[in-house]
Design brief:
Shape: globular
CATH architecture: Orthogonal Bundle
Number of helices: 6
CATH topology: Cytochrome Bc1 Complex, Chain D, domain 2
Structural class: mainly alpha
Distance between the termini: 37 Å
Helix content: 40-55%
Radius of gyration: 14 Å
Largest sheet: none
CATH class: Mainly Alpha
Number of strands: 0
Length: about 120
Amino acid sequence: MTKSALLLLAALPALGACASGTGKPATDQSGSELFQSYCANCHGTDGRGTFLNLGPSFESVREYWGADSLLVYIADPKAFAARTERLGEREMTAIADDVPQASRERLVEFALTLMD
């Protein structure tokens, strides 16, 4: 199986989580709920990664990320990673375009708490 096929198979559970979420619109979800909907399948429910290591752990990375950089990153991960040597090639999907900015900010605020 090719690397691309493996990445697609790995992304399927995350895509399902994005579509289903909590059943509430993003505007009504807390930062924690948004994280569970969009991030937890790869980064783990507590931000410490998953057994498949699909997304890295958030532990000890706060020095690299702030709210502004995370907001830009989740909007277009590949473009952000291309400008940042430290990240290299990343296969993270962008957060859905229909998620409003205020919801993105709640998500990022919660994600930052997992980086302590």
